[in-house]
C-alpha cells in the first residue's frame, strides 16, 4: 500500500489537507466586542466607580451591594470547630474519619462540611502512605545494593 492509499480518502484528496490541530482563534484572544468594551471602560473607570459609590451613599441598595461585594465579598464557607484526633500517621486516619462521621451524625457539622473534612483527612493519609512507601523503597534499594550479585 502506498502512503496516499493508506490515508483515509487518500486518493480523493486534492491539494494539501488541513494541518493538524485547530487553526482557530489563539488561546487568550478576546472577541473584538469584548476588547472594545474593556477599552471604553478603562477610560471611564474612575467616573463609573465614583458614580456607583455616590449612588450607594445616596441610598441606592443595588449600588451599595455592588460596592460591598467588591470591598468585602461574602465568604463561601466558614471555619468548622470540633474535636478531631491528631493525625500523625496513616494509621490515625481511620479514627479521624470516625470523628468526622460522628460529628455529622450528631449535627455538629453539616454533611457537606463532613465530606470536605473527610477528603482533607484522606489526603493527609495518602501523604503519610507515600512517605512510608518512599522509606520502605529506600530500605529495599539499600538492601539490594548490599546484597552480592549473582553472575
Question: Can you characterise this structure?
Answer:
The chain is an all-alpha fold and 151 residues long. Among the domains are: 32-71, no CATH class; 90-146. The chain is 60% helix and 0% strand. It contains 5 helices and no strands. The protein has helices at 3-6, 32-57, 61-71, 93-105, 111-146. Helix 2 packs across helix 3 (61-71) and helix 4 (93-105) runs antiparallel to helix 5. The two termini are 48 Å apart.
List keywords for this structure.
mainly alpha; flat; 151 residues
The best one-word shape is flat
- How many β-strand stretches? 0
**What is the typical, i.e. mean, pLDDT?**
81
Q: In terms of per-residue confidence, which ranges show pLDDT below 50 for 5 or more consecutive residues?
A: none
How large a portion of the residues is in β-strands, by DSSP E? under 5%
Helix content: 55-70%
Summing up helix and strand content along with how strands pair, one would put the structural category as mainly alpha
Distance between the termini: 48 Å
- Give the SSE order as H and E letters: HHHHH
Computed over alpha carbons, the radius of gyration is 31 Å
What is the helix tally? 5
Main pleated sheet: none
Brief overview:
The chain has helices at 3-6, 32-57, 61-71, 93-105, 111-146. It is mainly α.
Spell out the blueprint of helices and strands:
Layout: H1 3-6, H2 32-57, H3 61-71, H4 93-105, H5 111-146
